[in-house]
Structures
1.
Amino acid sequence: MYRQEIKWLWNAWKGNRLQAFINASLGLIDVAIQMAQVWAVKHAIDVASHETDGNIYVAVGIMAALICCVYATSITGVWVRNILGVKAQNRMQQRMLDRILRSEWQGKGQMHSGDMINRLETDVQHVVTFLTETIPNTISVATLFVCAFLYLCTMDWRLAIIIVIMLPTFILASKLYMRKMRALNRDVRDTDSEVQSILQETIQNRMLIKTQEKEEAMVDKLERTHSVLRRNVIKRTKFSVFSRFTLNFGFSTTYIIAFLWSAVRMSEGTLSFGGMTAFLQLVAKVQGPARSLTNLVPQFVSVFTAVERLMELEKNPLEEQGEPRKMEGTLGVRFDNVSFTYPDDEQNKEVISNLTIDFKPATCNVILGETGSGKTTLLRMILALIHPTAGNITIYNNQTEEKLSPLHRINIIYVPQGNTLMSGTIRDNLLLGSLNATEEEMQKALATACADFVNELPEGIDTEISEDGIGLSEGQAQRIAIARALLRDGSLMIFDEATSALDMDTEEQLLNNILAEQTKTVIFVTHRKQVCKYSGNIINL
């Protein structure tokens, strides 16, 4: 039933074995100390009541030493969880993010970013906790159960058998509980993702919401989703409380029977007071692990739900992987009878149909077209984000030609439309174009992009900017984004409405700067027809 999830967990566990081993070792040490404490308490009471010879101070000293050992293992466990636990969670988040970034572009069917973030935070935390703490804890709990049962058998094997006979009932109840709880837990987790998606989207678009005066509507939308979340949490809580009450009632009944049994034996003189104390401690230590194992069921439910959600992030296949295919010289791109239909389009409508076109090396090309004519789809195919459903796309120079793939993206300089700056300094944003860019190279790129204004800012290139370039005008942000792209070492340049926020004079100067050397193949996607005068190849879609 859970074969795929278990296989996924096994692969994820490979990077967390050290922490799991340390936690398991600490758990087994704690079991040994608990068994020693049972003997120490019985010994001290028997010495005090003169049932056994010995020094009461030594007996109590042994108890105190064991308590110190408990503190030591507890403190060590806290350090392991906090230090190694953070590393394990960070490592898994990085692996999942790397997998998402290397997967094929999802297009219209992609998950909401808020949902993805929720999975990368909450679900990763559940999985790491399960692998590094829950599994080791299960080992120590099972060991404690076996040790306590064997110790109890040496004192009264009949009662030990009676207590253990009840476990199959608990196991059956746990199985039924797990099946129902998994569905309830999934509902809560999915609704929680919806809440995060609404919060993230509302904060990102708060200016739009304010100008449309829809603050109340967005809060109402959040409240409706919160109501669904509350209902799901209430359902889960009711079921959990009822299940726990039923199990705990059974455990309590068993303990009362054990207490009565030991009291009768003590009254008959077949059990000492220290023996009765040890007897009850052992019963508790048999029941405690059994109770803990039933309490582990919700954790198993939670982790399987988390694994399901993380596996969904990995459903999208990886792009072609390998060494980037850097090609020398100025490149061209040729479309040969290319058609494309989005796979999730129910009408199966071709966005591009039988397109044949050649963006020749060292030429300036302009793509015009109405909204929905396929301009964006065309760019996505050049960037190898999507692949033709028919026909071929070839990238070539004067020596060779190859079928276009994601590995050729290293040859492309791309400036997307809109404000694509990230929070941090202007330098941080420029270094996204080239991590090894020198100060001189960054200044040259800024000059080419008509972004010299950066040097007039109070902190210059080290000026801090907020998310989405807040603090800069749209035109300023656009020019910095162009400078960032120019730092890439590629000979095929793509500008997607990249000058839409510039005035005509700045745009003209920018285009003159970019086209001055005639050493790159340039493709403009634009609605501004004045750009056409710079192009010898105009494509109308």
2.
Amino acid sequence: MQRSLFVSLYGVLSLLIAVPRVSAQPAPGKYLPMNDIRDLVLIYQGGSHRIDYNAEQLRPYVVHEDRFGNRDWLFDGFLFLEFDNGKGVSYEVRGNAPLTKKEDWAWLAGRHFESGKGVAALDDCIASAVAELGEPPFRHKVVIGVPEPPRGQKDWGELDGHRLDFSNTEDRIKAGKWYMDLVKEYFNRGKFRYLELAGFYWLPEKSLQSREVTRALGDYTRSKGLRFYWIPYYTAQGYSEWRDLGFDAAYLQPTYFWNRKIGDERVDRACELARTYGMGLEMEFDMRASVKAKECHRDRGMGYMSSFRRNGVYRSSAIAYYEGGGGVYYFTKTTAPEDRAFIDTLAYFIRDRRHRMLDGAKPDFRETFDTKQLDTALWNVARSGKTVVRRGRLVLKGTTRLDTRGLWDLQYGTITVRARICSRNPEAKACIRLLPATERLGAWPNSGDMFLMNYVGSRPGTVACGANTMQMNEVKLHNIKQSVIPVEGLGDDFHTFTCKWTERDVIFSVDGTVANIQEDLFDSRFPYYPQGWPFNCDRFYLEISTESPTDEVVLEVEMVEMLSD
């Protein structure tokens, strides 16, 4: 189903470095890389039925401020496009809609560059943000949509005294080049401080009788040092041949958000196809992702994020964002906590992938204690108690604590610790847990913790797994989200304690057996979480601690592994 069918109801592309057209088929198994524009949002600005996209309206696309007041840059790419002038005239071939003419094309180009709106407003908005945040660590890129010259149209207009006839392929190409030159002239005239023209976008979402046109326009775009982009819908005609069609970057629409007859496996399948053909992915949502929507599709919007995380899209692929024409603006203005959580989660993934690329991804944390001393570049050690490393094991004696705060933390991933309880003292305790790095919701327990293993000597042979939150925690008797599981040979053998943490749930396992599940609260209201699900609000670090009235060995650890997701 084509996206354009939905835009009029409510009415975000990520982009990358250009890839030379050297082969009809890219190497399989890799997404379109995010070397240039990582996260490009689609801005439907042109038709008279659209919002103007002034600086105030563009602010949420440039800078995201989460519900805790934290601010950071958001999208690094902006695609300005339009398929309908708001008066029934179409910039692409759609049914029996009247076709645009030269004056309509000229009006659209000028619309994108009006003073105080569109591209000019974006530059002003970035300038204001620079005064608050400092210079961005990237150059904001602009891509402009190119109308389709319909095959067979004879009344489009004249160029250089020649009346164009779109039955002639060369005339169609000539019109496309004219529009590109006009846009480039507007952009150069604007002398924008913070923007760079990255290229042009082909408006039709399938290849139908335009192969020679797109090939020629792609070559022309590259001759200007720019790039040519395309976003076909799921399995659209020509999607797998996008390079041979002349494009430098293409993104596949899963078209999953709107139609509930489409199964939940659709986004995973789109990811698989995008990998096969070297494409990027598009995330799709609109105001129906709001809990206030009459027809709520919030779960579908979250489905994109879950699939993109699961399929490695956030780590390695360029992403485009269709948001319904004002969706991001809406979600940053709503007061519904679920809606703010939705846009905050999306912004987290965008910021995290940017920092991962600009700063260099930290290696996944793995410690096997194969040195003679504890690595203080990885661990903080409390002065009380005693920790030693011997024979490939971390030994914790008496009452002590070590953690990775300020040295290593993560948000979402798999955390695994192999450890053995050594003490049989009924007063001894041991705990392995994750704690919030910045405590955005307040001091413990408000910001939460997740414990992979909590051992109390008075209950030998068992450990607890679970979480503490503001309303449900260990200081409120019989009111904690935990499970107690018996572990055979707890004091004799090493056991594996694992926490699998996603934006939707936290699953704790002991020796591969699921012991406790904390489910997400994105689509449910739980009265005992009045400040929201705390495990989507912060990055968490690892803490290992023991407590004993004597200087005995309480715990031995032979492996710690944290794999960020």
3.
Amino acid sequence: MKRAGTLAALRRAYAEEGLHPREVACEALRRAAGADPAVWIHRLEAAAVLAHVERLDGMAFEGAPLWGVPFAIKDNIDLAGVPTTAGCPDYAYVPERSASVVERLLAAGAVPIGKTNLDQFATGLVGTRSPYGAVPNAIDPSYVAGGSSSGSAVAVAHGIVPFALGTDTAGSGRVPAAFNGLVGFKPSRGWWSTRGVVPACRTLDCVSVFARTVADVHAVAEVAGGFDAEGPFSRRLEFAGFDAENARFGYLAPERLPWFDAAYPDLYGRGVSGLPGTPRAVDPEPFLAAGRLLYEGPWLAERVAAVGDFVEAHPDAVHPITRTVIEGGRTLDAADCFRAQYRLPELRREADAAFADIDVLVAPTAPTHYTLAEVDADPLGTNARLGTFTNCVNLLDLCAVAVPAGTTPDGMPFGVTLLAPAGRDHALLRAAAGFLDEEAPGADEPLPDMVHLAVCGAHMAGQPLNGELTRRGAWRVAATRTAPRYRLLALPDGKRPALIRSESGGASIELEVWSMPSREVGGFLTTVDRPLALGSVELEGGRWVHGFVGDAGAVSGAVDITRFRGWRAYHETA
């Protein structure tokens, strides 16, 4: 059976072509069995997988966005009834309940295939620190796959599953994406609950996802994310955004970056040169300095708090390099930890200042890519260098998505990471889709607690009243047109137009769709005077959204400007 390439294609095959999830699940199991053994720690038996398929009979297809989609789970994330090892056999336990994110995915119809290999206790960026074996890179097995979510990335890269869960504390969900030519999304801390995840640094840990497209990542994110009252590190995020179609991009000044591969600066420069608008160079030092804190302060000691007792009681059960890293946290005194905690807010202020002038920061994901032999020769040094650009992200409270951005002269993938402040996840994914020339995800339907509003005049981007939208946390999700059934009238005050539906003699009128927090809509409406009123507007393609239309009195004294097809065009020629 031919594998469907994306979640949307798989869903269409289920809905229109008679494909059954049993076929897809069995093919995923066949592919999993044929993969390098190091990819998996535990593959589910066929009977267990088909039991998950059978429960789909009780789910409404339309209400289950991941219905019949196979996926893999990093083995530091709980799946009920299946051992969780965190890459250490002696640590294994069998959870009675799945992790919060897994519960959400199962409820949406996803089908688990197995648990994937990782750097033990999620401590590493190489994918080699595991008693289950080093995971070979999906493109060239002489190179590392990247870690710690090595098995999850390779399972997706080999087409075994459309998506897989990883975790990301210092780059574990981004470095393997870059090294295997994938999209790797690390959400804002706390959006995806970490309940049911073996901790590395509990205050920084995130669950992440690997997929082949931004659209697939976004589909998983809409299911996996959400506040979890049982998760102590879950938080209620207030999502905001930016105009992804006109995002202001920044980049780290390449001449000030530490590179460890002669080809990488040129590849990064090419990626930056293709950014829209006029990208702004950003001082990399606050980001690099924050990254250095990760292994100099309390977050190294936090790894001791997570699994240090087990390491001390079972030293021979722990990978030697993993044990060395974790035990290093015992050397820090309280003063060292407080100094790092004092320094981090200073660096966050500097990073915040950088984002005052940009919406998205584009950084290299890694400064080089090592072979397995190079990592074996210098396991600590190579690993440390791979985190040069990723270590800072959770410390600075950013969301991130790693995307492919070229190929090295040796034929290996090169990737960059798009970064934005916490709560900008949805807008960041739309910007990433634009970077990859994908159709932007999530533009058709508003997010939870958001409302889509169509505007066609002074509230559009760059117009005098646009601030009434932006200061209420709104962002533009689409620049489009109405269905060809509207007239546009210039009101007597000369400052605003009115949109009037007309079944005959109408035209397609330029407008923009903005997404606004629901709680802000009432206050916004108080700024809109008659003869304008909130109604429904039909867009080209037939979709309806809320928008401002003229009431019965709008025609009186107004000038019909429909022939201009838009407010901007009218002003440019009037």
